[in-house]
Design the sequence.
């Protein structure tokens, strides 16, 4: 192996420590940032994410709120929970855990969140603000990935970036952020022709596909920086473990740097969720925003 393994876990701990420092400062003014997480149903993978988020919210000194609804909750029921959180002055961030059960319209639900409290950055207002280079709430996973890239590479201007996956929650906002950093961006997906050739052009390769170990060493330009967003549960020897969308061993022998799974982008997502909640709280209260925690 030749690649540097990017320690997202350690970086995320530093981001959380910064957030905690700002939260302590706000407390002296009598302000406690509040993050509300809305869960519909009992998706087991979601439960882990929610538990980790809850623990870290309290750790940085924020107020954590959880609203659980049964899997068969109706749209009006869910919308009324969101309306109450929008109106609650103790709540500065609202996250509705995705995916929602199929009978609920996710776009409608997300767009019911007050954009100022939309710490996922999924509301159409925030998507539009990001796309036009205006101040927005930036989706956590792309924001965390960008922080790792800037820390490692500094100025990203002129670099070839290839993002594999075009979801609204990862691929598209990741491409927007890289474009704003003056990368030459290619957004690849399931209809992309000659995907290995496209990937081999990349100085920065971001994998957000949801296919275990799809991207292999011979798809990667020597020295490239590889960000593996994928979180896939696979069965091996009777146990489940997490693997990314990147075949770590073969890619690590070619790449210049790579994020591991677990311990890469995942912890950064949670750290950025807390950073976004802090940013939202400062904006709502008309206070100066903390530096270095936004895109
Ligand atoms: N680390 C973290 O914090 C987070 C990790 N994740 C993980 O990231 C991964 C992606 O998540 P998400 O964006 O929500 O996934 P989606 O399923 O919403 O999107 C997957 C994307 O990958 C594309 N794709 C699927 N198969 C192929 C293929 N064979 N070749 C090329 N492209 C393909 C799809 O293309 P098309 O549009 O053409 O169908 C689609 O654009 C998952 O593993 C998820 O668990 C997600 C969020 C946060
Ligand atoms: N509205 C919404 N916003 C999201 O951001 C969102 C979502 N819904 N639905 C689910 C996906 C997935 N996601 C993860 C975040 C952190 C880890 C994470 O912390 N992973 C750790 C540990 C994982 C473990 O060990 O279980 C790691 O990779 O090291 C994983 C996955 C956010 N998502």
Sequence:
């Amino acid at each position: 192996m030749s690649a540097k393994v990017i320690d997202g876990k350690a970086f995320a701990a530093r981001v959380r420590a910064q957030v905690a420092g700002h939260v302590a400062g706000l407390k002296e003014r009598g302000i406690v940032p509040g993050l509300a997480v809305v869960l519909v149903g009992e998706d087991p993978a979601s439960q882990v994410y929610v538990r980790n988020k809850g623990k870290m919210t309290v750790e940085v000194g924020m107020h954590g709120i959880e609203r659980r609804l049964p899997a068969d909750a109706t749209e009006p029921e869910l919308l009324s929970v969101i309306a109450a959180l929008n109106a609650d002055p103790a709540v500065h961030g609202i996250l509705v855990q995705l995916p929602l059960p199929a009978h609920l319209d996710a776009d409608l639900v997300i767009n019911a969140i007050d954009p100022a409290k939309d710490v996922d950055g999924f509301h159409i207002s925030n998507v539009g603000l990001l796309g036009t280079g205006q101040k927005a709430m930036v989706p956590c996973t792309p924001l965390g990935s960008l922080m790792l890239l800037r820390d490692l590479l500094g100025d990203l201007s002129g670099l070839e970036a290839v993002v594999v996956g075009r979801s609204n929650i990862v691929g598209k906002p990741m491409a927007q952020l890289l474009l704003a950093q003056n990368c030459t961006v290619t957004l690849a997906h399931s209809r992309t022709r000659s995907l290995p050739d496209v990937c081999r052009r990349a100085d920065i390769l971001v994998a957000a596909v949801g296919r275990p170990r799809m991207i292999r060493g011979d798809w990667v330009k020597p020295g490239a920086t590889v960000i593996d967003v994928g979180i896939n549960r696979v069965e091996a020897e009777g146990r489940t473990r997490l693997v990314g969308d990147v075949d770590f061993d073969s890619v690590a022998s070619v790449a210049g740097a790579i994020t591991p799974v677990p311990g890469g982008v995942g912890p950064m997502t949670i750290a950025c969720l807390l950073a976004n909640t802090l940013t939202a709280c400062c904006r709502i209260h008309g206070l100066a925003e903390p530096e270095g925690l936004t895109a």
